[in-house]
Amino acid sequence: MVLKKITELTSFLKSSRNIVIVGHQNPDGDAVGATLSLQHYFIKKKHKATVVLPNDYPDFLQWLPKSGRLYFFDKQNSQSKKALVESDIVFLLDFNALHRVGADMQNTLETYPNDFALIDHHQQPEEFTYMYSDTSMSSTCQMVYNFIEMMGDVDLIDKDLATCLYTGIMTDTGSFRFRSTTSTTHRIIANLIDKGAENDKIHSNIYDSNSCGRLLLLGQALRNLQVLFEYKTAFITLTDQEKKQFNFEKGDTEGFVNYALSVKGIVFAAIFIEDQEQKIIKISFRSKGKFSVNKFARKYFDGGGHDNAAGGKSTVSMEETLIKFKALLPKYQKELENSYEA
Hints:
Blueprint lengths: L1 E3 L1 H7 L5 E5 L6 H16 L3 E6 L16 E3 L4 H10 L2 E5 L9 H8 L4 E6 L9 E4 L6 H11 L8 H14 L10 H12 L4 H9 L4 H12 L2 E3 L4 E6 L1 H6 L10 H6 L6 E8 L4 E8 L5 H8 L3 E2 L3 E6 L3 H11 L4 H5 L5
Parallel strand pairs: 2-3, 2-5, 3-4, 5-6, 6-7, 9-10
Antiparallel strand pairs: 1-7, 8-9, 10-11, 11-13, 12-13
C-alpha cells in the first residue's frame, strides 16, 4: 500500500475547493461508482465537485444516482476543459496512468498546472502528488469508502452514496467471488446495506437488464469459443461485423470473457474484440491461480491491470493478433499447468 501526503491532502480539503474527479476511458461499474460516490461525498462536504469521464458508460449503469455536474470529454469537450481549468485539484480514480483516459484527454491532463490525487488499486501506478494506492483492494470503491473513513466521515454516507459504492464493489469482485473479496470487504458491504444500499435491486439493475441483442451476441461469442486444453487456455473472438449484426451497444460484452474462464480445467482466458473505429483489437484477460495476466498484458499487448484480470490491445488484424497470442502460449505451458489453485 502507498499512502503519500494523505495528511496534507486532508488539510488541503478542510477549505472549500473546486474539485474535478476523473475516471478511465470506457468506464466500468467500479470507475462510475467510485467517481459518483466521491462526488456525492465532496458535495456533502461543501466542495464544488464535477465528474469528467473520457466517454459515456453503459446503459446498465445509467440508473446510478448523480449529485452534480458530469461531463464526457469526447462529447462535451469545452465544458470538460473549462471544469479542469477552473479546478483546484483533480482526483484520478480507478486507473494508474494518464494514458488510460485516451490520447486527447491525456494531452489535456498533462498540461494541468495543479495537483493530482490518485485513488486506485491497479499495479505499478505512476507518481502523483497525493496517492492512495493499494493493489490488495477488491475495488476502487472499497478504497473510496476507506478514504471517507480516513477523513472521519463515514456518518455522511447516505443511501445514494452507499448505492454507488456497493455497485462498484459488487461489479469489480464478480459479485463477491474473486480472491480480493475479504472479510473486510463484506463488513463494508454490510455497512453499505445498513446505510440504504438495496442489494437485490442493485444486482437486478446491473445483471437482469439484458437486451435481446446482447443475449444473441453472447450466443455468437460462445460459438466462437476456442479451447486449447494443452495450454489450459480458452479464448473468444468477436468481429465488428458480428457486433453490428446483433445491434451492439456499449457494455454488451461485459463479462463474456468469464465464460471462457469457466470451462473446466481452464486457467487462462481471453476475449478479442475488433474495434474498427479505433483501429485496434480490444483484449480482456482473466486467469485463475498464480498466472499473472497483468504481466502478460504489459509485456505483449500494451496493457495491464491485476494478476487475475487485465486488459490490452493490438494494432494489427484479428488474424495476426491470434497468431501472436497462440505463439506465446508454449512459452508459458509449464506456468499455466502449475497455476491452478483449487
